[in-house]
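CO-FOLDING WORKSHEET

Operator: S.A.
Ligand of interest: flavin-adenine dinucleotide
Run index: 206
Mode: holo prediction, single chain
Checklist:
[x] sequence pasted
[x] SMILES validated
[ ] output reviewed
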Amino acid sequence: MQVLNSGFVRLVESMGGDEAVIRNARRCWRSEAKTKNADRQLLRHLLKAGHKTPFEAMVFTFDVKAPLFVARQWFRHRIGSYNEESLRYCVALRDYYIPEHLEGDVLEAWIRQNEVAFDFYDSLVGGTGPKKMAKEQARSILPIGIYTTFYWTVNGSALMNFLHLRLDKQAQYEIRQYAEAILELVKDVAPICFDEFEREVLKISG
Ligand SMILES: Cc1cc2nc3c(=O)[nH]c(=O)nc-3n(C[C@H](O)[C@H](O)[C@H](O)COP(=O)(O)OP(=O)(O)OC[C@H]3O[C@@H](n4cnc5c(N)ncnc54)[C@H](O)[C@@H]3O)c2cc1C
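OUTPUT RECEIVED:
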């Protein structure tokens, strides 16, 4: 799913879904799966009561391309695993965030500033002789709006925490766009869990 001017989020793989969460939760009461409605009621109860562990039975891996400043906010979510491309080992691609509302002189200046930074960076990492610099040092000249890519593996409970915080209007617009895309992706995997999550936690009535 495309996000911002040049980013994306894709669901690479997942384990578990509604059934796995319900199975884990039912172990607490030594009960068997019942009707669809009873299962839904159970999920609603778990979310209301903050009984989060059964949601850890779902695990998702996302492939993300996001501006560095978004990734920095994202990586504050410690319950999950990250693997990010390294600008010690890879040359930075000329790819940077452009806010959609920019126009006219400001848009031109925005692009110019980024291009100048990339021109200098390229001359440092591609240069010869005294001008040549290691990628790990040269990267510090690049702005925080450049795009990075990473894989994020996260369980359903930690993902709900991320969504709750990052879908809120207090969260920055840019990370909210990613959270919205992720919510759409996981609804295909665990439709009842995330439907009830929207209703009970986000308070969005269906
Ligand atoms: C609108 C907004 C503004 C923010 N502004 C700032 C800011 O100005 N500066 C800044 O530094 N951060 C800021 N943050 C980041 C915020 O403080 C959290 O670090 C971030 O949202 C991750 O949340 P989390 O700890 O719940 O998630 P995770 O790290 O994924 O943790 C999930 C849950 O696990 C538990 N947990 C994890 N680690 C620990 C631990 N060490 N001890 C106890 N319990 C733990 C907690 O219950 C936690 O809720 C902001 C976040 C938001 C949403």
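REVIEW:
The chain has two domains: 2-85+146-200, 104-141.
The two ends are 23 Å apart (CA to CA).
[x] output reviewed
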